[in-house]
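Support case: user asked for a sample of complex input and structure output to validate their parser. Sending the pair below.
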Amino acid sequence: MPHLLYVAFWYPPSRASGVYRALATTSAFVDRGWDVTVLTTTREFLEDEVGSVDLALLDDVPATVDLRRVPFSFTDLEGWDVRSLGWAVAHFPRLGRNRSATFPDRYWRWIDRALRAAADVNSQKSVDHILATGNPYAAMEAARLTGADLGAGYSVDFRDPWAIDVYTGEQLGGAIAEAEQTIVGDADAIFHVNDQIAGAYRSRYPVAGVEKHHVAPNGYDADSLGEIGPPPRAGEPLRFAILGTITELWPIQAVFDGWSAARDDLPHGSELILGGHLGYFERSQSTIEGMIPGAGSGVRYVGPIAKRDVGEFYRGSHVVVVPVPGGAMVTSGKIYETLAVGVPVVCVQQDPGAARDLALGYDHAFVAEPSAGSVASALVAACQMATRQTVGDKRAIRERMAGHERIAAIQPIVEVISSRVESSR
Amino acid sequence: MSAGEAVARLAESGEEWAIVIAGPNPSGQKKARRECDEALEVGITPVCIGSVDGSEADWIVVDPLEHGWWRKLLADRAPANPVAKLIWNRVLRRTSSLFAPLVFWLAGRKAITEFQALQPPRVIVFCDEAAITTAWHCARRWGSSPVVDKVGRLR
């Protein structure tokens, strides 16, 4: 049985956006007959420094996966020998902080520890291939160095590009560019979430081997959809739903403005329900909370929705709104899930935008620019469709979306790595 | 609980105690909660120096300053001119983590001094960077006590 070492800094109980893809990746390899060991961070770091976890996600980790938790802390207290400090550093500890980063990523301190853990894993069972997912990109460097140490090949899964700004397309230089070039150059295979990003990387690294770049798109988890909800009764107030980790990058203000402008044209009592965490880090909460309109606005924030309750949340929704940050390379995994729910979808993203391009291919999706007028028109159009929709219409949409299930979408990663390892045996 | 009350309780019971120091920030305080629980598990009564919620039946909490106390103090003195205020806030943001350990020690020094009447703590635990100055002074005060970032390192 081949053995995959999967370096995924964000893994359950983290609730970072990349966790669902990481879970699907491990499941797909396990299903294909691989032994999988995951190197990830500790629950302590997630609780203390990130400030949130979703313990229910641990239930989705395949039982056969060997989870190795490698400690990380931004403050790195372990490195302090307090008793031996001089007066100045004891009173101003920042002066004594080790600032000489060995890798241009704020998680660089994790690399050495991950290397030691990887060597330990390999000593117990030989590793056949290493796969790393980023961000953080320190995970990719850990994979590269481990590969060199163990003489095993490695691959990387760029959920977001690193040396290319995903929002603007700007090409970064300096230490990041150098580090990325080395990682890409030495990797056996590189995976991207859409054609736009893969194309940008092929152009950036023509010498490193354009054939190494593959697309494994994001997708949705079928168990998140739940049962198909009933259509609204005549005159019934509609529930417009937004679900996800709400961040400052979302065009959320445009959605609120559009909602306010559209309310007179929607059934009386309709609501815009927001479900999800406010930001990935605890410190973002208050800023985002301040953006949510207050009582009387028809907007209601219902707090985080556990993964097992997502289906129920969607079941009661008549329209789903998905705000996506702009950018020709930004697809957002959420777009697949929302399109698969079966109800009309309003995708709010500026042009150019990869998510809106995807949504334009579906009759039940309405695309809006992040402006009040554009969002309002899309909400009203989606409302009209929702009142006409039947359960049969929703079922047909789900059938059409079946090919975008995450576990199916992730298969190119499993195929490429499996064939590579099999051919080298 | 005041430091005096804590000292009286520990002197009367003669129980082994640990000093767990958590600076005024959320991550240090979450860590402190866990370290206090960990100390209890190994039979050591934790004395937590910092703004940490806990059951006082199990832990002793001595809170030398409220959350963000000194930043608030400085913010109240911010200049009225918008440009000057912007610069003031930037300087404050940049320097707060530099000065936080010292300010935290100055706020907690008097309370910690009262514990000198007791046997040395079994361990001194610092839960974040802001706790380092206080831990350093505690280490000088109680030369025989180990200084660690986790109670678990005693094992």
